[in-house]
Each structure stands twice: as structure tokens, then as C-alpha cells.
# Entry
Amino acid sequence: MYRFLRSILFLFPAEFIHKLVAGILRLAYVIPPVRAVIRACYSVRDPLLEREFCGIKLAHPVGLAAGFDKNATLYSAFSMLGFAFIEIGTVTPVGQAGNPKPRLFRIVQDEALINRMGFNNEGADVIVKRLKKAHPAGLVIGGNIGKNTQTPNSEAVTDYLYCFDALYPYVDYITVNVSCPNVAGLSALQNPEILRDILTAIVKHRNRQIERKPVLLKISPDLSILYLDDILQIVEELGIDGIVAVNTTTQRTGLTIGKDRIEAIGKGGMSGKPLKLPALETINYIRQRTKGKLPVIGTGGVMSPEDATRLLNAGATLVQVYSGFIYHGPSLVKKINKELLKIIING
# Structure
């Protein structure tokens, strides 16, 4: 059924379909009978699936990655589809339009996406107003924070602290995004000296709060082992609670399309099936390097139940989907949970 629907949806530009689907989901959510039917179709609830991550209790380990619900307008609607947690954002202090269109491209034959959205969002103050509203029971919400494109890296810490202070009271955890390749110069913030300053300031702000909530760091799959080791050392020293691995990649490894098509698309972060191996290798390395002591949310290349179980077996506690949702539809969450239940029951 979804394969047929996808063939129609994919006739239209990717960003247009994103907005169309978002609007349909929001409409469905506000109609109680429709909401109930959708929830019954896609939700899987079983105590065997429950997880705890950095002190947060979740109904199961499958969530929606940042980037889909940039403005916190969809998290309630997505709860109908069975997600245990939603990461909203990336949120910047001031709203910004992002990069020029077109900026989102499908590579159907490789089940990949390339985007250069550029942190398009309505800004922290607008988004916080939405987060203040009641959340669906049991839904965990993460806040992914970044800096405005026009803010120089030398002043980036100010942007991160603004977003941290704004979102912290209304989300369950914070993810610091310094690894998105679609904002000019942002990945330079992964330089250990700069990163240490940003994370130190955030940890100090977190320590002043009455309630302690997890702070996570989202990392790139393109880091060298040397840089990754330095980052993991900083994370350990500062008491960062966990890692989100991984962000999109600037590499084009794994694509079968021609060089001309790749060049025509241009710059951007790639997600989807080709990101499967880099995500798996990064998570496995983190587990080995930290002896499994550092909690990890695995994201990247989760296109099937088998992909999810590989990341979990490699050392992730939770997984997030994005491109898999687009290519395989809302039933993917249910399929992953059913497979996990089968594994748990059968030992």
C-alpha cells in the first residue's frame, strides 16, 4: 500500500510533499476518531520493549530524528504513528529561512536523501510557545539546538546558550548540534578547543537548573578517529550524558547514480541507506572506546528492522529514523518493535 502511495508522492518535489504530509498528519490528529484509529494501527505497547536512557523512561527504543519536526508543530501528530520520542529542531535563537531552494533531493534507487536545508526554523521563542502546550502522555521530546547562520563561530556559544535556556524547561533532553554540514562553517565547531568551550558553558548552565536533564552531543560520521577520540575525551571530562551518532555525511560513498547527477545536486548532507555502514562503525567504535559506558542514540541508515537491531547490537540504546520513514512509511516503527519483541521473546 505505502509503496503505491510513495510512487505518487515522489512525483512531486520533496519539500512540497514534506509540507503536505505534515498538514495531513496535523489534521488527522485533531479529529479524535481518526487519531484513535491511526494510533491503534501503528502503536506497539509491551513492557518488554521499555527502555531507560540517561534516566528517561521510554515505551520502546524507536524515535524520530531531528530535522522532520523543525518547528515543534508535528510531535503530537507523530505520536499517533507509534514513536516513543521525537527530537525537534534544529532550533536557532532567531528564525531563519535556510538555504535557497531546491535544497532537498531524493535518490530513490539508493534510498538516500541529500539536503542542504540550512537550519530553517522559526526561532527559539516561537517554538517554545508550542512546547509549552500539553504533550501526549508518555511521549519524550528532545530539543536539538544550533546557531544562526550569520553568527560567527567565535560567538557561537551565545547562540547555543540562548537556545538551551529557552528550550530546557520544556523538553526532556537537549542535543547540541555542531555537526550539520549544511550550515557554513558549523562543522568547525567540532574542533576540540572550540567544542570544549561550547560544552563547558552548556554544562555550567545545566548545573544551575533545579532539574537535571540529559545533554547529548550529535556527531558527524566524517570525523577521523583522532578527532573522535578527542571529542569522546571531552565528553567524558565534562560529563556530557550521551552521543547521537550520526549526522548526515558530506561523502557520496554508496551511491550508484552517475557522477553528473551527483554534481548536479551539489552540496548537502546525505542520509538514508548509504549512511548505514558509517553509523554502524561509529557506534561500534564508541562502544569499544568507552567500554559501553557512554549512552548512544543511533541514527543513520535505519531503513528496516534489521538495520535497527544492528545499531542496537553495536551499542546504541535507542534508534532514530528519518529517511527510513520517508522510503518505507509509518509502519516502519511498528515493524521494528515487532522484530525486537520477537528477538526478546525467543532469546
About this structure: The mean pLDDT is 96.
